[in-house]
Model the fold of this input.
Amino acid sequence: SPPPPDNLRAEILRESKDGDVTIRVVELFFGPQHRAKMTVELLIPPAEGPLPVFMTQHCHRLWALIAVRRGYIGCAYAGSDSKDDTEDYANIWYPDFDFTRLMRRAWGASRVIDYLYTLEIVDKERIALTGHSRNGKQSLMAAAFDERIKAVIPSSGGTGAENPWRFTSEKYDTESITEISTVFPYWIHPRIRFFVGAEHKLPVDQNLL
Done:
């Protein structure tokens, strides 16, 4: 994936109130000619900062609302099937980088954290990230590459997340390299298919992340 951009720009699209919770929708622009973007929704409780942040993808916004009731800033970003601003990253950074869908979304989550770090109300030492299923995979990928994420909850991420490839079996409803590289070849880099039937030869496995 590309190095962190040094030209992040944020534009507040709208701000409103839901009871005493502030809802702020922000669009981030970065990368070559600011062509890459990421839409972020912040749900800010009525409390004195700095506050911890609970990050998740757009499709899990309800989880962020639950976190707000517990004193967190809820943060939902456009890095999921329901709303995905990261799809264009492949073309923007081609051919220098060939990161595939889940890694693009994970990298996009780090750009959200770049923005969070500019806000005084954010407790930089307490940023958590979660996602379910394929979003669990991308959440763990993001945490593996970004030490600013202090807690990660890869809900049912399975293989490609918390489960080692070596101990995967479709018998137990976990996705093998064969299944992912044929059914979802755009999730993970296509070179993973070189290890179909040879999982024991992988140079690194998920438990090492």
